[in-house]
Amino acid sequence: MDTEHDVVALILRDHRTMEDLFRRMRSVEEDRAAALREFAGLLIAHAHAEETEVYPALRRFRNIDDDEVEHGEEEHDEGNEALLDLLETGLEAGDVGSAAWDEKLENLVEAVTHHLDEEERTILNGARENVPADRRAELGVAFGEERARQLAADCGRIENVREQVKSRR
């Protein structure tokens, strides 16, 4: 199968990009604020596209646990809350690189990497094994289009992240 449109491959590619952005946000030699802005957009767009285009479709497939999908959505919320804490410290307060920044960055890294690991082991392995390739390609196109719409709308700006967190509490 062409991995260009396979939803599993697209999601995994975003996961690796998030890990790279974590490395950049930790590095004193990088523009940490720019890496945070890029990460914020990617995390919000990625999670929204999963929840609107991918997760609902995966719930229909046998051997993909609905509880795992629901748990994935809860973990998105945890990641968004940790992201908001870091955005408020780093971009609003201008404390990129401070002790508070480092602590909140590690909270974000922990929340998101935990989710990535669980999602890859449960939901994505289930999708790879149980969802036909043509359906994964259709989901990949829908995921990519929604993700692109979110990024074009600057979904990672702090006001939007704040609204996302507030609406899910």
Total number of helical segments?
A: 6
Distance linking N and C termini = 40 Å
Largest beta sheet, briefly?
Answer: none
* Element string (H = helix, E = strand): HHHHHH
Coarse shape? elongated
Secondary-structure-derived class: mainly alpha
The helicity comes to over 70%
What is the radius of gyration?
16 Å
Beta fraction: under 5%
Whole-number mean pLDDT:
90
Which spans have pLDDT < 50 for at least 5 consecutive residues? none
Number of strands: 0
Offer a few descriptive terms.
single chain; 169 residues; mainly alpha; 0% strand
Summarize this entry quickly:
With 169 residues, this protein is mainly alpha-helical.
Could you describe the 3D structure shown?
This protein is an all-alpha fold and 169 residues long. The protein has six helices and no strands. α1 (7-26) runs antiparallel to α4 (99-130) and α2 packs antiparallel against α3. The relative contact order is 0.19.
List the helices and strands and how they pair.
Blueprint: H1 7-26, H2 32-58, H3 66-92, H4 99-130, H5 133-152, H6 158-168
